[in-house]
From TrEMBL:
Swiss-Prot/TrEMBL keywords: Cell junction, Cell membrane, Gap junction, Membrane, Transmembrane, Transmembrane helix
The gene coding this protein: Gjb7
Function: One gap junction consists of a cluster of closely packed pairs of transmembrane channels, the connexons, through which materials of low MW diffuse from one cell to a neighboring cell.
Transmembrane annotation, as ranges: 21-39, 77-97, 118-142, 177-202
Top-level taxon: Eukaryota
Residues in Connexin cysteine-rich domain copies: 133-200
UniProt protein name: Gap junction protein
GO biological process: cell-cell signaling
Membrane topology type: Multi-pass membrane protein
Quaternary state and interactors: A connexon is composed of a hexamer of connexins.
Entry-linked PROSITE patterns: CONNEXINS_2
Molecular function per GO: gap junction channel activity
Coiled coil, from the record: none
């Protein structure tokens, strides 16, 4: 999979982000995207081939693998990365819209990339969407795999398996470490998004309050 588009998107968002937003971009790019491309993808690369059961009944191994791993961890992680980065397109498109209006000699903005007015609303919506998607994917991981764990051994009694069979997962400890890393970075991104959301709301609430106070004084 080519991640050039996601990289370019994060680079574009970085121009219009607050300080906390830039930290979020750095975490997504360095601790999630690069870790995925450089290491995690290879660990789960042959997970189906390396899943072994102690019986060679035709179809048993495939059915058991599908039961315990309905969606590959690494594919779900990739989908999560794409989905939580996509709301940032709202901000990029809004800034592009402002810049287009400026080119048509409609001098409406001192700085098209400044987070104010309509762009502030768009930015806040993108933060809410990113936070919501992070939480949805964490819940999805937890529900699909019965917690954030990778067992060494699973017992399967699904047909066409003739009885309860033992199935072994390859590199469970290594996979568990990366899964914990995934959960930790996702939680960190949630904290950063909520922190940035609170900061922007507080900042512009104070700004509006000061404006009203100045008008009353005048």
């Amino acid at each position: 999979m080519s991640w050039a588009f996601l990289r370019d998107l994060l680079s574009g968002v970085n121009k219009y982000s607050t300080g906390i937003g830039r930290i979020w971009v750095a975490v997504v790019f360095m601790f999630r995207l690069l870790v995925y491309v450089a290491a995690a993808e290879n660990i789960w690369k042959h997970e189906h081939d390396e899943f072994e059961c102690n019986i060679k009944q035709p179809g048993c191994e495939n059915v058991c693998f599908d039961h315990f791993f309905p969606v590959s961890h690494i594919r779900l992680w990739a989908l999560q990365l794409i989905m939580v980065s996509t709301p940032s397109l709202l901000v990029v498109f809004h800034v592009a819209y402002r810049e287009t209006r400026e080119k048509h000699n409609q001098k409406l903005y001192k700085n098209p990339g400044k987070i104010d007015g309509g762009l502030l609303c768009t930015y806040l919506i993108s933060l809410i969407l990113k936070t919501g998607l992070e939480i949805v994917f964490l819940v999805l991981f937890y529900k699909l795999y019965d917690g954030f764990k990778i067992p060494h051994l699973v017992k399967c009694d699904i047909k066409p398996c003739p009885s309860t069979v033992d199935c072994y997962i390859s590199k469970p400890t290594e996979k568990r470490i990366f899964l914990y890393f995934l959960v930790a970075t996702s939680c960190l991104c949630i904290v950063l998004n909520l922190g940035e959301l609170s900061y922007l709301i507080f900042k512009y609430s104070i700004k509006c309050h000061l404006k009203r106070h100045v008008k009353k004084q005048q």
